[in-house]
Every structure is written in structure tokens, then in C-alpha cells.
Specification:
CATH class of the domain at 17-95 in chain C: Mainly Alpha
CATH architecture of the domain at 17-95 in chain C: Orthogonal Bundle
Strand content of chain B: 5-15%
Chains: A alpha/beta, B alpha+beta, C mainly alpha
Helix content of chain B: 55-70%
Shape of chain C: elongated
CATH topology of the domain at 17-95 in chain C: Helicase, Ruva Protein, domain 3
Number of strands of chain C: 0
Number of helices of chain C: 6
Largest sheet of chain C: none
CATH superfamily of the domain at 17-95 in chain C: Cytochrome C biogenesis protein
Order of helices and strands of chain C: HHHHHH
Shape of chain B: globular
Oligomer: heterotrimer
């Protein structure tokens, strides 16, 4: 004959295990804090261009079709790791890749692109990190998918690879409204 | 060759562990003498294989065999020899092997210890331990094999995480894991008792030294980790309520409760089912900690590379081991009853309060650690829980607990004779209050509201702890090691409270902009930033500041904080310059180059922070002394045991033994 | 009497561990009231790159930038809530160290006190039960035999 209260620990444990199981399943995505900016318009920006000195990279000019904004720096080892994937993604020619060079040195950045290849259509320089803060960036590399209307549709924290691109970005790119009047 | 040998050894170890579990649990169940006899050889064989495996891994590191993936990920040709050895447990796979090795060590120790115990019981204990070993070995071989090869071999390795390249690293994980794993012994004793269907005061007596020693090791491991964080991370914190820190703290809290609960069960046969549950809980928390660190469910400075497959696997064997134990508990525990009584102010009462308050504290830490995880899993918005939550919430049960320690020390078993000690208690309290105020205002000239409270509680504990030992000494009576150990451990607790109170009340912390050559004043000290020079280490470049700290114009020490850049991992590390003067810890850390020759420099004066870590070692020492008491190795007389216990329990023993 | 003491201890215990630490930034806002707000806010905001550290305590660059943002906003005259909202809008509720008191968080914050009350209730019940048994419990409290032997030696 079992007294009820002795079975309580087992029940509590099983419930906890159940929750942990859900947590583990979600772990790959949950590993980084979900962005609160998904579904909100990307902040406006006008930043000097790295690769086209003298001109600017502006959010208004980019509006009208979807693009990917990739935050990187030469000081960031994981950016080095994802660079090859970026080159491959650029070759797919699905969307333009816009680079955001975060708190970096211009000479080093240009050197990096010359040596490793330049996957970006344009590269904006964010020396003070203002845009990065507005985007809620807290660790490079981070990559945003912004649709034709300028809304942030997806954010990925950490280095990109082809698997993540195919799984998370491509479906959203294909679903995004086609280029057209905003 | 060596990695393959190690791999093979692990497989053999796993098979032997399976045999150990099989013979150990089923031998007594079916009364097979030969099976029970096979357990000890299985233990020995498994241990030899595990030693071989870890030896092979260590050799691979020493030889810098970069064809082994784990070595390539955690070592580098520039890595100094000491850290090559420590790198064995620097990441997930190797640390699991360390776990298994330490479990083997405890098992061997237990196999010697149980020689004095009834054969069946001893076999069961080793059987349960064998089952745990088997599970860990299976997990390691299936998901975390440290001997995997890299084809082609890497030319050089990725180097050990610079944060871990430190002397404390060599000792912190082994100490910590010794504690973690040690609770498996209490767990095994509990399991054996449940399998036997018998749990009496003798059982409690045998379990005590194993629990206390595991607790002592865990405490030292935690303290070392805290100390390392303090000087390595450079900003003077010693506890961050980090999920992984909490994961080690929770078993310690459970272990503390268990030690006290075992005392009651040993002495009076009370709290039996509760003690059983605590024994299961302590090890379960150890396992939960393992899960948290390796499954990717929490993100932490400590956490190993996340891998959800591993997470699911660990969860599965958590379910089997803990779920199995709790099922046994639900089945057997209701039969454990006692008719012993105790009065309102008896020692049993105070130990009851002790356990309740410790469990509340444990629940607070558990809730705070798991809440963000759970909220996230259930798709609720992320909960943010940090120091602002933990500090007041943890203090809520702990302050009352500290207040009750003195009363508990003076209390007697069974009868509430506290009124006999009323005068002593009031006098000691009075002295404690006076001392506390004197210290707060006299030494530091003023304090916050709760500072004297903290000091009062600590001094009160010290004074009451010393009364009985001093009395015995004066009357030329012996003090048992158990009592001596208890006294030392309680004094250690008081030292901890003093340290924490002092640091939290009187820390003087400032950040200043200084250029080399300039001076600054803080507290009683003058700080002279002498110069800034480049420096080089075996695998890093650094910029080193030289600071001379003086008091009353007399130079006391030179501190050399550094900012290092490790070549391979390219991460920047701050090494603080730390010194001590009159109990106050002085910490200087280099911040950033502010330009125009100035640097931001953080200067911290932290009174008595060293006492926090010294306290942990005093407590561990107390635990060690108590655990060595020979009383625990003798059984209580049969008569004393069976009497005073319900007839039902005796019938249970008769009906279910064997 | 004992219970009153207990309650008093509980009520005040939360004060026990508040500490004030200087900001990591050596520059100071001239107005002391603003400086105090700066200190308070920078200790309330989490450094997103670290674990359980505030931007006040963290040496990473991002923390420094966020501290700058906070200082600028304070000097501009923004309120504490506006600054918190600004951060939350970009980084989510997670950036707040001390979660805003809401229905969701309540069980976490009230937990310890509730548990204390539950614990007290359980303790009283057990004590009543056991003290009643003392009358019937005529078992002598035997001393540990080996200890006696040692003392006799």
C-alpha cells in the first residue's frame, strides 16, 4: 500500500524531465536570445562605404527588394569561420549581401576582403557601433534578413553555414514579397 | 596506437561495469554467492581499464598527438607541459573521462570499506555504483569519445581556452568532480537500503563518513572555482550565480542537509525516509548539473560546447537512474516509520529547522536557475534572473538558519533542555553583539544596517561552538572526532559569514583614469602607476602595468596587472594584480587604453574576501576530521537498533531481508 | 517571541546583500543625482556578451558603448523608464537584470517567503506530532559505546 506523498518526488521529477526534454530539443535555436526586432522595421541608417570611399550606404537606397545584412569585424574569429560560407551564398545570387563592418579598422578590413574575397555588394562602416546597438547586436557575426519593405524578417547569431542558410534563410527569402513598389 | 588502446580499454571498462552492476544487484536478489563474489574483481578490472584509458589520453596530450581530434581541439605546440596534462579535462569528452575515473576511485574505496559490512549489502552498493559507471561509459563511447581520430592529422592544435590556462584549472575540476561523484556513494547506499528493504540506524552510521567526505571535496572544489574566478576574471566578484556555479552549489546544499539529517537518523532512527530522499536528491543534483553544462540548455562561461544529441542522451539516463531511484523510494519509503519522540527545543528540532531552511535555500537556487530554462522551453518570454534576485532570495532562509545554529549547538537530544543553557546563550549573544559593533565601527568606522547582524551571528556561532569542547578539555575528557569535526566546520561557517559580511559591506571600488607616472588615493592607500611595459609569455603577448601600493607613505607591495593576447585563440585576457594588506585584498586591473597616455584602471579594496575561501577549507577540514571518526565504522548493537522502532519495521526487516 | 524574531529577520534579510560598486567608467557625471542614476541603471542592465554581469561591471567593449548610451540619455534628460524601454526595444526583456515585477515574475519573487511559511507550517506539524510521542517513548538515549570505551581508557 503506497502512501500518496511518497510518489510525489517521482512525479515532480518526471514533469521536470519533460520540460528539460523540450528545452533540449529547442536548444540549437534557443542558444541565442531571440531578437525582439523580428517583424519590426530595420532602423534607418546612412553610413560611409568601405569599398566605395566617398559614398554612403543608406537604408533608403536598399529598400525595394530583400537583402541580407551581415555584421562582421576583422577582430572576430567566428567571422573568419563563416566567410567561406558567405562567398558561397553570394554565388547563389539570391539576395544582395550587405556587410556592416563593426568597430573595425578600415585598412585591416579592406585587407581582409582583398585576401579572403569580397562577398558583399556594399560594406557600411559602423565605427561607433550605433547601428549595431539599434539592431540589438551583441556578438559578431550576426546576420539579418530584411525584406523589400524594410522589415527585419530573420536574425541569426553566430557563424552562417550553408545548412543554416538553406534551413532558415531561403524559405523566408522565397516567401518574401517580390521586389516592387514599397 | 595509444588512442586505440584507450578506446578499447573504455569498451572493456563498460562491459566490466555492466557485469559489476549485474552481479552486484542480482546476486543478492537471487542469493547467488558466486555472483556476489564476482563483484569485487569486476570493480578492480573496471578500474584498471579506466586508468589505462585516461592514461592513454594523457599520453596523447603530452606527446601532442594532433591526430587525435580532442587533442587538436584543446592543445597546441606552444602549450606548457602542465597545461597539456590539465587539458585532458579541459573540455567535454575528457572531463567525462575524469568523472568516470573518479567514480572508479570512489568505487575502489567503497569496495574496501564494505568488507566490514554484510556481504549482500556491500554487493548491492557496488552494484548500484556499477550501474552508474556503466551509464557514463555508455554515454561517453556513444556520444563523446575522446579518442576519435582526425584524418588528416592537424598540423597544430587550437590551443586550450586561455581562461583555463591557470594553476587553479589543474585542481578545480578534479576536486569538484571528486565531490560530485562522491555523492554517488551515498546514493548507492540509499539504493542498497531500498533494494534490501531495510534501513536502520546502522545504515545511517555507515553512510555518514562517505557523505561527509564527498561534501568536503565539493566544498573545496567550489571555493577554488570562486577564487579562480576572482583573480582570473579581474573584476573582484567571487560568486556570480552563474547557472553552472549554481549547479555545483545545489548538491552542496543538499549534501549539507543530508549530513545533518543522517545525524538524526543515526542517533534516533528518525527522518529515515527523508534522509533516503536527500541521499537520492544530492546525487540527482550532481547529475542534473552534468546535464545543464553539456546539453546546450544553458549558456555559460563554463558550459561546454552545446550538443543537443548529448543533451537528450544524458536526459535519458537521468530518467533511468533518478527515475529508478525515486520509484524504489515510492515503493519502500512508506514502510519506514519511527515512534521516537522529541521536544520542541531538542536537537532534533533544530536539525529539522536546519533541513527545512536548507531545502528552501536549495529550492530558491534551483528555481532561479531553472526558471529561465523552463520559461523558454514553454515558449514564454525569456525570464531574466541574476544577482539582484538571488542575493535577497537566498538570504531569506539563510539568515534565520544562521541565527538558529548557536541554539542548535547548545541543544540536547530528545529533551528540550535549552532553558538550562539560557544564561550561556544570552551571555554569548551579548558578547557577540558587542564584538560585532566594535568591529563594525571600530575597525571600519561605520556600516550598513545589516553588517552588525552578520557579524553578531558569526561571533555567536563561534562562541557557542567552543563552549562544549573547552568544557571537555578542562575536565580532561576526550572529544570525539565527530564532535571536533562538527565544531571546526561550524567555525568555518562563521568565518564564511564574517568574510561575506565584510566584503559586501566595506568594499571600496573605483575606476580611475591614470597615466604612467601618476598617483591616486583610495581608502588608506596610495597607488602609484609606475610604468607600462610590453611583456611576453609562452603563448601570449601582453602589456604589463607596474603599480606600487603604499600606506602612510611606506610602500607595501608592487602589483603587476596584465592584459594578455593569446596568439592562437586571439582572445584578450585580463590578469589582475592582487595583494593583501592587513586582511584587505587589493586588486588592480587594467581596463582600456583611453588615449592620450591614460588608461582606465580599476582599483578594488576588498576586506576579508580571502576569509571566504579560507572558510571553505576550514569547513572541509572539519568534514574530514568528522569523517575519520572510527565510530562510524562500527555497527550499533543489534539491541539498540531494533528497539525503539515500530514492530512493522522489524517485520519488514525479517520478511524482506536477502 | 521566536516567531517574531524570525519574521523580523525575514523582513530585513533582503537588505543584507545590497552593495554599491563604482562604475567601470572613470569619468563621472558632474551632477551627483545624475551620477547616482547612472550607477543604478548601469548595474541594472545586463551585459549581453557575458553571463550574469551588468554593463557596469563588464570590461567588454559593447558594455562600454551601452554605458555611453546610458550616460548620453541621462544627460539629455531621459527618464529611467525611457532608458530601460530603449534597451528593451533593442535587446528584449532579457537585458534587464532585475525583471520588471509582473504577474509572471511574482511567483519567483514571492517564492522564498511563501516557502518559509510552508516550511514553518510543516515544522509546527512535525513538532506537535513528535513532542506528543515523547511521553510514550521510554527508550533510553544510549550513548555510543565506543566513545565511552575511549573515555574509560
Amino acid at each position: 500500500m503506497m502512501k500518496t506523498r511518497f510518489i510525489v518526488p517521482l512525479i515532480v521529477f518526471v514533469a521536470l524531465a519533460g520540460v528539460l526534454f523540450i528545452a533540449v530539443k529547442r536548444a540549437p535555436d534557443k542558444h541565442f536570445i531571440a531578437s525582439v526586432l523580428i517583424g519590426k522595421p530595420a532602423p534607418e541608417f546612412k553610413l560611409p562605404s568601405l569599398t566605395n570611399p566617398g559614398s554612403n550606404v543608406t537604408s533608403t537606397a536598399l529598400q525595394g527588394k530583400p537583402y541580407v545584412l551581415n555584421v562582421w569585424g576583422t577582430w572576430c574569429p567566428m567571422c573568419r569561420v563563416e566567410h567561406q560560407a558567405l562567398m558561397q551564398i553570394q554565388q547563389l545570387e539570391q539576395v544582395p549581401l550587405i556587410g556592416l563592418n563593426w568597430r573595425d579598422d578600415d585598412a585591416l578590413a579592406l585587407d581582409w576582403l582583398a585576401q579572403l574575397g569580397n562577398p558583399y555588394e556594399q560594406v557600411a562602416i559602423d565605427k561607433q557601433g550605433r547601428l549595431a546597438i539599434d539592431l540589438g547586436v551583441y556578438g559578431a557575426p550576426e546576420t539579418f534578413l530584411i525584406d523589400a519593405k524594410g522589415i527585419i524578417v530573420h536574425k541569426h547569431v553566430g557563424p552562417l553555414d550553408m545548412e543554416i542558410w538553406k534551413r532558415d534563410f531561403e524559405p523566408k527569402i522565397n516567401a518574401a514579397p517580390a521586389a516592387g513598389p514599397t | 596506437m595509444l588512442p586505440e588502446l584507450g578506446h578499447f580499454a573504455l569498451i572493456l571498462a563498460m562491459l566490466l561495469a555492466a557485469l559489476q552492476a549485474f552481479f552486484g544487484i542480482l546476486g543478492p536478489q537471487f542469493g547467488r554467492e558466486r555472483w556476489m563474489a564476482a563483484v569485487t574483481p569486476a570493480v578492480a578490472g573496471q578500474f584498471v581499464m579506466v586508468v589505462t584509458a585516461i592514461g592513454c589520453l594523457m599520453a596523447s596530450f603530452i606527446n601532442l598527438d594532433f591526430s587525435v581530434k580532442y587533442v587538436a581541439q584543446n592543445a597546441n605546440s606552444a602549450l606548457p607541459m602542465v597545461y597539456r596534462i590539465a587539458a585532458v579535462w579541459g573540455a567535454h569528452e575528457g572531463s567525462l573521462l575524469l568523472w568516470i575515473f573518479l567514480l572508479g576511485c570512489w568505487t575502489v574505496a567503497v569496495s574496501v570499506g564494505v568488507l566490514r559490512l554484510p556481504k549482500r549489502f556491500g554487493a548491492r552498493v557496488l552494484g548500484v555504483l556499477g550501474f552508474v559507471s556503466f551509464a557514463f561509459l555508455l554515454f561517453t563511447l556513444a556520444t563523446s569519445n575522446p579518442f576519435l581520430r582526425l584524418e588528416p592529422a592537424a598540423p597544430d592544435g587550437q590551443d586550450l581556452n586561455p581562461l583555463l590556462q591557470d594553476p587553479a584549472l589543474a585542481i578545480h575540476p578534479p576536486l569538484l568532480y571528486t565531490g560530485y561523484v562522491g555523492f554517488a556513494v551515498a546514493f548507492a547506499f540509499a539504493g542498497a537500503a531500498m533494494l534490501e528493504g531495510k534501513m536502520d540506524q546502522t545504515w545511517a552510521r555507515w553512510t555518514r563518513p562517505w557523505t561527509t567526505s564527498a561534501w568536503a571535496f565539493l566544498g573545496m572544489g567550489i571555493a577554488l572555482g570562486s577564487w579562480w574566478a576572482y583573480y582570473e576574471l579581474g573584476w573582484g566578484g567571487y560568486w556570480f550565480w552563474d547557472p553552472v556555479e549554481n549547479a555545483s552549489f545545489m548538491p552542496w546544499l543538499a549534501g549539507t542537509a543530508l549530513i545533518h539529517s543522517l545525524a538524526v537518523t543515526d542517533k534516533r532512527g528518525l527522518f529515515k525516509s527523508w534522509t533516503l530522499l536527500l541521499a537520492i536528491l544530492a546525487f540527482s543534483l550532481s547529475l542534473l548539473g552534468t546535464f545543464l553544462v553539456r546539453s546546450g540548455v544553458t549558456v555559460s562561461v563554463h558550459s561546454f560546447a552545446a550538443d543537443p544529441t548529448r543533451g537528450v542522451f544524458i536526459l535519458a539516463f537521468l530518467l533511468i537512474i533518478i527515475g529508478g531511484a525515486l520509484t524504489l523510494y515510492a515503493w519502500r519509503a512508506p514502510l519506514l516509520k519511527s515512534q521516537a519522540g522529541f521536544e520542541f527545543t531538542s536537537r532534533e528540532s533544530f536539525l529539522l529547522f536546519n533541513n527545512i531552511l536548507l531545502v528552501i535555500a536549495l529550492a530558491v537556487v534551483f528555481g532561479g536557475t531553472m526558471a529561465p530554462l523552463i520559461a523558454d522551453a514553454l515558449k514564454m518570454p525569456t525570464l531574466s534572473v541574476g544577482t539582484p534576485y538571488f542575493n535577497p532570495s537566498f538570504a531569506t532562509p539563510m539568515v534565520p538558519l544562521l541565527a538558529l545554529v548557536a541554539l542548535g549547538i547548545m541543544s540536547s537530544w530528545k529533551r528540550g533542555r535549552l532553558s538550562e543553557h539560557q544564561r550561556t546563550l544570552l551571555v554569548t549573544l551579548g558578547v557577540a553583539i558587542v564584538l560585532a559593533l566594535a568591529v563594525s565601527f571600530g575597525i571600519w568606522g561605520g556600516s550598513r544596517v545589516l553588517t552588525p547582524v552578520g557579524f553578531t551571528l558569526a561571533f555567536w556561532i563561534v562562541l557557542t561552538s567552543l563552549i562544549d569542547p573547552i568544557d571537555r578539555w578542562r575536565r580532561k575528557l576526550t572529544i570525539s572526532r565527530g564532535v571536533l569535526g562538527m565544531t571546526v566546520a561550524h567555525i568555518g561557517l562563521a568565518v564564511l559569514v564574517i568574510g561575506i559580511t565584510a566584503v559586501e559591506s566595506f568594499t571600496n571600488e573605483r575606476d580611475i583614469a591614470l597615466a604612467p607616472g601618476q598617483k591616486a588615493e583610495q581608502g588608506d592607500y596610495q597607488i602609484h602607476f609606475v610604468n607600462l611595459t610590453p611583456a611576453e609569455g609562452p603563448n601570449y603577448n601582453a602589456v604589463r602595468g607596474q603599480f606600487v601600493v603604499s600606506r602612510d607613505g611606506k610602500p607595501l607591495m608592487t602589483l603587476n596587472p596584465e592584459k594578455r593576447q593569446y596568439w592562437v585563440q586571439r582572445s584578450v585576457q585580463t590578469e589582475a594584480g592582487i595583494g593583501t594588506d592587513r586582511g584587505t585584498n587589493i586588486l588592480i586591473a587594467l581596463g582600456e587604453d583611453l588615449g592620450a597616455g591614460k588608461w582606465s584602471v580599476r582599483v578594488q579594496l576588498r576586506p576579508l574576501v580571502n576569509w571566504v575561501w579560507i572558510a571553505a577549507f576550514i569547513m572541509a577540514l572539519g568534514g574530514g576530521i568528522a569523517a575519520s571518526d572510527r565510530r562510524y565504522r562500527t555497527a550499533r548493537s543489534e539491541a539498540a537498533d531494533e528497539a525503539g522502532v515500530v514492530a512493522g519495521n522489524a517485520a519488514l526487516a525479517k520478511g524482506k531481508s536477502g | 517571541m521566536r516567531r517574531a524574531l524570525l519574521l523580523a529577520l525575514v523582513a530585513f534579510s533582503w537588505l543584507a546583500f545590497m552593495r554599491v560598486a563604482a562604475a567601470i567608467d572613470p569619468t563621472v557625471i558632474p551632477d551627483p543625482a545624475l551620477q547616482e542614476r547612472y550607477q543604478k541603471l548601469t548595474h541594472e542592465l545586463r551585459c549581453m556578451q557575458c553571463l550574469n554581469q551588468s554593463i557596469a561591471d563588464s570590461p567588454v567593449e559593447l558594455a562600454g558603448e551601452l554605458r555611453n548610451e546610458v550616460r548620453e540619455m541621462i544627460v539629455e534628460g531621459k527618464s529611467d523608464d525611457e532608458i530601460r524601454d530603449y534597451m528593451v526595444a533593442r535587446y528584449g526583456e532579457f537585458i534587464l537584470f532585475r525583471p520588471r515585477f509582473s504577474a509572471r515574475n511574482m511567483w519567483l519573487w514571492l517564492g522564498p517567503t511563501v516557502l518559509l511559511l510552508v516550511g514553518a507550517f510543516i515544522a509546527v506539524r512535525i513538532l506537535r506530532q513528535r513532542s506528543a510521542l515523547v511521553a510514550q517513548d521510554d527508550q533510553p538515549l544510549e550513548d555510543d559505546p565506543p566513545l565511552e570505551k575511549e573515555a574509560g581508557r
